[in-house]
From TrEMBL:
Residues 5-196 form the CheB-type methylesterase domain. SUPFAM superfamilies: Methylesterase CheB, C-terminal domain (SSF52738). It comes from Herbaspirillum frisingense. It catalyses: [protein]-L-glutamate 5-O-methyl ester + H2O = L-glutamyl-[protein] + methanol + H(+). Gene3D superfamilies: Methylesterase CheB, C-terminal domain. The active site is at S22, H49, D145. CDD domains: CheB (cd16433). It is an enzyme of class 3 (hydrolase). Keywords: Chemotaxis, Hydrolase. This is protein-glutamate methylesterase. One of its GO terms (biological process) is chemotaxis.
């Protein structure tokens, strides 16, 4: 299902992707992140709600699955194209403006939507930095985190995607994202992976990799 035709993405440059997930997120991310090709020049930042009290193994788990480098985000690191970043436990992940481009930033401010890291915090800060060059994706989860952030991305001119709630392991988060306002695309995980697979060296959707 989608509210807009794929042609709306033709010649659209995407410099960054932000993804939010909670319950069922590891399985969902395992279906879509490997679709990013090594030569794709997008930077991808992921917030997955995880326990605060122990170290995260997400970077190691997904490094073995993905063609792109996968790292745990570090404060003040420059954001590198063609890299996937996971938010660390118990810190909000933000996108900040540096003297030579966008930077990763960490915050231990109060939880948002009972979560730290919070999806909304990442999405809203990324929308400020990337505007229409941003793609935001909300996946399976059990609270409303990400709904407000997707609307911030839409207001900034970016592209918004929600996993089809009918296939989500925990449909509440996608349902809340859809209830918050208009969304560009409602897609299955297979369709989201297909979209990510089309992003190439210029950050523009390539039809030859879209099966069109």
């Amino acid at each position: 299902m989608s509210a807009r035709p794929w042609s709306a993405l033709d010649a659209r440059r995407i410099d960054a992707i932000v993804i939010g997930a909670s319950a069922g997120g590891v399985e969902a991310l395992s279906e879509i992140l490997p679709a990013l090709r090594a030569e794709a020049t997008v930077a991808t930042m992921v917030v997955l709600h995880i326990p605060r009290e122990r170290p995260s193994l997400l970077a190691q788990i997904f490094a073995a699955k993905c063609a792109q480098p996968v790292l745990e985000a570090q404060d003040k690191d420059p954001i590198q194209a063609g890299t996937i970043y996971f938010a660390p436990p118990d810190y909000h992940l933000l996108v900040d403006e540096g003297t030579e481009g966008a930077l990763l930033a960490m915050s231990n401010d109060e939880p948002v939507n009972f979560s730290r890291p919070a999806i909304d915090v990442l999405f809203e800060s990324a929308a400020d930095q990337y505007g229409e060059r941003l793609l935001g994706i909300v996946l399976t989860g059990g609270n409303q985190d990400g709904a407000a952030g997707l609307q911030a991305i839409r207001r900034a001119g970016g592209v918004t995607v929600v996993q089809d709630p009918q296939e989500a392991q925990a449909p509440y988060m996608p349902e809340q994202a859809l209830a918050a306002g208009d969304i560009d695309y409602v897609l299955t995980l297979g369709q989201i992976a297909g979209l990510l697979r089309t992003l190439g060296a210029s950050g523009v959707r390539e039809k030859e990799n879209a099966g069109e």
